[in-house]
Amino acid sequence: MIVGVLDTGCDADHLELRRKRINFGYIPLKAEPGKIRNIRGFDTHGHGTHVCGIIADKNIGVAPNVELMAASVIESERHTTSLRRITIALDWMLQEISTEDKLEKPVAINMSLGFLPEWLPEPDQQAAQNGMQQIITTLVDVFKVLPIVAIGNEGLGKMRLPGRVRGFFVDL
Q1: What does the pLDDT average to over 161-165?
Q2: 66-79 pLDDT, tens per residue?
Q3: What is the pLDDT of residues 111-153, one digit of tens each?
Q4: Three-class SS state of 151
Q5: Phi, psi (deg, nearest 5) at residue 158
Q6: Which of 50, 82, 121, 147 is the most exposed place for a label (fewest CB within 10 A)?
Q7: Percentage of the chain with pLDDT > 70?
Q8: Are the beta carbons of 71 and 27 closer than 8 angstroms?
């Protein structure tokens, strides 16, 4: 199985992850499609490493033998991200999992991130909602990827994108 993580990054030197091969990509703030920086994994905030650890730590991870991919799309200093960076990271991951040796492996992509449309200017809010809807639909329908997203960080009944994408969650 392959698990991708879009977050603040992943510390390749973490005690529980340092012997694990992690396919890591950094997506800069002003990233252009296809311009991923493949460098040794880092995480100046720690959240992405925490998520990767829950998944793949050698001693306490729920799936220590998965192939792990991590994309740094959130700047830890400001906790900002953008639909563009998410799209570039997902495109990179989809290219990586589309190689002949990985085509038959199940894939899940975790996005412990989110933004409220209200954070965007009024004209961009619906475009962001539609864009995220298209991303999730494409992951599921075309690539057969299981997306795992954060919900509930804002409190009961309040969800950020991508967690609030229509048809993606169960409204209790």
Answers
A1: 72
A2: 999 999 998 755 65
A3: 988 777 777 778 777 787 788 888 888 888 989 999 988 877 7
A4: coil
A5: -115, 120
A6: 121
A7: 91
A8: yes
More confident residue, 169 or 115: 115
Q: What is the Cβ-side half-sphere exposure of residue 96, based on CA atoms within 13 angstroms?
A: 24
What are residue 106's phi and psi, to 5 degrees? -70, 150
DSSP letters for 62-104: S-TTSEEEEEE-SBTTTTB--HHHHHHHHHHHHHHHTSGGGTT
Q: Between 19 and 76, name the one with better pLDDT.
A: 19
Tokens 């002003």 -> residue: 30
In the chain, DSSP finds a helix count (H) and a strand count (E) of: 3, 5
| Residues belonging to the chain | 172
Which residues are within 8 A (CB) of 159 and not within 5 positions of it... i.e. 6 or more apart? Answer: 114, 151, 152, 169
Quote the Cα angle for 99-105-108, to 5°: 100
